[in-house]
Records
---
Amino acid sequence: MFSTIELALYQGTYRLAGVCCEYNTLPNIKLDNKGAFATKGTYPTFTGAGFADSPILIQGQLALSSATLTISYTVNATLATYTL
């Protein structure tokens, strides 16, 4: 079974969702002249008593020749990469 990964506006920020049991938020996205961006985001982690936001660096690349966006970030030494 495949899930749909989406990047959408959510309460004044962008939210990357659709991954089982996780999501993260990006406060802003500013593309440079090569279609790349890097921004600080948050990744909610379960603490046992609830959730706490962990800061992460989210990087992205918009392909200039198409509508493809690649987003990546690292959590707990594991790289996650998604192509939208």
---
Amino acid sequence: MVRDADPDLSRKPAGPPRSLPARLAELGAAANRWVRAPLPPPPAALRRGPLRRDAFDSRLRSPRLTSLLGLALAVAFAVCFLTGLISHLIQHPPAWFWWPSRPVGLYRVTQGLHVATGLASVPLLGAKLWSVYPRLFGWPPARTLVHAVERAGVAVLVAAALFQLFSGILNIARWYTPMPFFFTAGHYWSAWLAAGALMAHLGVKLPIVRRALARATPDRTRPGGLTRRGLLGAVGAAAGVITLATAGQTVAPLAPVALLAPRRPGTGPQGLPVNKTAAGAGVRDAAFDPGYRLTIAGPARTVSLDLAGLAALPQHTVVLPISCVEGWSSTGTWTGVRLRDLAALVGVDPEHAEAYVESLEARGRYRATTVPPPHVRDPYTLIALRLGGEVLHPDHGYPARLIAPNRPGVLQTKWVARITARSAS
């Protein structure tokens, strides 16, 4: 009796097994087809109001106009991001960061540029959003999963950009009530979010931008109406007016036209603006206490000096600006004791020293600051006792304050009570 052949043995030999790269490529192709497959269209009954066809009939909008506005906005945001990053690193320096003490007005330029480009971005962003506004109501709302992800990325970019501008304007005005968070942290992290979303958006839209800029489009505006060139000119003029009307808080010759500037050079006690007063800081009584002493501590010895003792030390006069994160700055003539001399007084080599300077303030994020070696050894860094030849006004830090070149005003500690000097090497 002959047995039937085993069905498994009767099959044709299988081909060679596919390699892992081939399998991954096949899976990738399948996933690509899946995410790019058309999504089910929404009901046509929903296409009403701004969703209806030809709901926006302005002839000013065009890919070229949107591309030009987008490039201008990208440049402004890039400058604003880089200068803002510098300011954040100065205030919260990581171990690898280094910031020089010279030129003395460098921070004045970078932070002034940061605020100026931020404010100039307001009309640019407004015009850019207007030019793409109809796409918010595109039909269908999402054609594929890839398109849906792209639109979500645009939403993140718009939200982060608006947050950056509005929070920055509130900070310039020192109006923190609408912000239930620490401005510096919120502004910093949202800047990274905006930068990342902007890079992704540029990567997606770059081919469209190149095609739009490569060919001129006819200006199909109504006779006598605003042209695209006129619109671009109006946006540029608005950005210029905003810049001129605020730059006077840093550039003294423009002060007469600085109508939008919250601070102006020459305004305030002893001719300099102030952000925080002695009364507001709660230090007025301590500052005028006859028992006031400035304590300078080193690893080997500690010295305590009253105002007469500080005045008996060699006095030096320097001309330095106060440059604040809000974008304003003003120059003053300061007289006092060099910080490097106080470090040497307690046995620390001033060429390799850093100093921790504390205020009479009992609390506050910036009641103390670390002065790095480049600034400690700089002869322009003072514990100032006088401003413009007069004893410091209480709101400028009486009885003694730190003034150092090329540092934000928030780090120029007022009402100094204690200095701890130590070797940085």
---
Amino acid sequence: MTTYDVDLFVIGAGSGGVRASRVAASYGASVAIAEEYRVGGTCVIRGCVPKKMLYYAADFASDVAKADRLGWQFTDKKFDWPHLRDVILSDVQRLEGLYTQTLNNNNIKIYQERAVIEGPHQIGLASGKKIKARHILVAVGAEPARLDIPGAELAVTSNEMFLLPELPKRAVVIGGGYIANEFAGILNSFGVKTVVATHGDIILRGYEQEMAQRLVEIGQAHGIHYQFNAALSSIVRENDGSLTATFSNGTKIETDLVLFAIGRIPNSKNLGLEAAHVALDKKGGIIVNEENHSSCSSIYAVGDVTDRVQLTPVAIREGQAFADRVFGNKKASVDYTTIPTAVFSHPPLASAGLTEEEARAEYKNIKIYKSSFRPMRNALIGSDDRALYKMIVDGHSDRVLGLHLIGPDSPEIVQLAAVAIKAGLTKQDFNDTIALHPTSAEELVLLR
């Protein structure tokens, strides 16, 4: 009989890997985990958590600007970027400590070094140590993509945005996805002259396009400039230290910072996956089945490295289901339908269920209900920004297929809206629910 050092070895201590480790250990499995950077992974260390903190600070900027209308007087309105940056980094360090504590409390051995796969059951650590594992879970996440153009090294990615020594006066954000639009809103709110440049003709491809268009309109009103059909071709450092971004259409933009926000690629390189004949897709994502099983019987993968759904809550759910199945002998699965998503832009955008385009492709008869309104808070502070809510309904069964919102607190609202869609509630169910007044959320039950 083969003797193993551990029942489970996890490569990557991000959200999915930590959850899988903790749950597996709770079933009595011996577990070890390797992390070459910092425990917590992308979301906690350099992703959604610190970015949401930046979002809160940026959102507060508009409150300060409009404070006098509400009777508040500030004699010295001043923003201190290094102070905010250091507060965020300190809190990230606190969270890293909590994640590490969770692993230690569950008797999980932590190796703070790089690990690679040397065979179906063997792990090699950077220190030279070899470990045999009954099961291996790859949970190394993804990394920001970079353009292969002259001067690409002069650009930063989302990883470096939390470490900037100072705020730039001007910034060009390359990309049209959620990361690009979130950082564009943050930078613009901090007073940075911001340009969003994308090679396509729309932003937020795959989202409900009426919401995306409303975001563009509001962004433009707040000073964000959008360049569509603009593919970046080069970046040059000028003698004064500034940058010149040149696009394929001939446009040149002088700036102080270029941010690549063009998507994320699975972090599967140099992991030794070929040693265990683990199959990858064209983007480098580990191919897995519905049970997160790779092409190697002893190796599994969860989270962004699978390039399936790159969302932290999905990675956590996959890690939980993996541990429940393999070590808890439970029939656990992950339902990928009706996953709520949010873009923490300014204003935020949130969605659950099918877009109108998707619904029309799948159903013969759909009905659309919309409400465009100015939230009370916006009216009070003198903002002309208008929220937009959109409900998509199956005209035959009256079942709600999708809900899409842009406006204050939209991500908070859409979480419960996703529950309603998941439960198969109808438009009449919404109609029969008494409105909570005065709120923006009441629009969901008043749509006619």
